[in-house]
Write a structure and sequence with these properties.
alpha+beta, 4-stranded antiparallel sheet, 4 strands, Alpha-Beta Plaits, homodimer
């Protein structure tokens, strides 16, 4: 599995709108086992996106999906910048979508 | 929802053993919607634990569960320290265990 933990900085006042775009764009991405959008509790403009993918390649491929491309276009102007970004190798846990479920959802 | 993103530093050579303890200790925690243990790709001793809970109170309560207490006892000597720690308010996403599922599992 491949994981990403990343901080995204919204244009002031646009964090909620940016979060909505991120959440609506992410349905049915092949290989996506977890994708969570969260507000930072100390910085009113910051979001954290934590992701788990079956492989780094499937994550990369998702960037070409129409729904994801649409979200990027829509959200781009609401992003002021990016903060920390950590790549990981998830070992397991609770709350990871079943692989069959994620692949079927993406067909 | 309440979220945590935290870096844990294992005693050198003990990361895999620590990860095992973290993963075995976490079954059936009431209110836990996601709990993922991952290796950092740049630091051979570092783990990232990302969690989503229904409430901060349920997360706090989990620390008193027998299985969690046992994991803490077992794992304590394998932990060299802690790194970054971010508290968040998760807004939603894919891969969050259904609430009913998490509560039933915890009974």
């Amino acid at each position: 599995m491949y994981g990403l933990i990343g901080k995204m900085l919204a244009v002031p006042g646009q964090r909620a709108a940016l979060a909505d775009i991120l959440l609506e764009g992410l349905k049915e991405m092949p290989g996506c086992l977890s994708y969570i959008v969260a507000e930072d509790l100390t910085d009113a403009d910051a979001l954290w996106v934590t992701e788990v993918w079956e492989t780094a390649e499937l994550h990369q491929a998702s960037l070409g999906l129409p729904a994801v491309q649409a979200a990027i276009s829509k959200g781009r102007s609401l992003i002021a910048g990016f903060g920390e970004r950590y790549e990981t190798r998830p070992l397991g846990g609770h709350g990871l979508a079943r692989r069959a479920e994620s692949l079927i959802g993406g067909e």
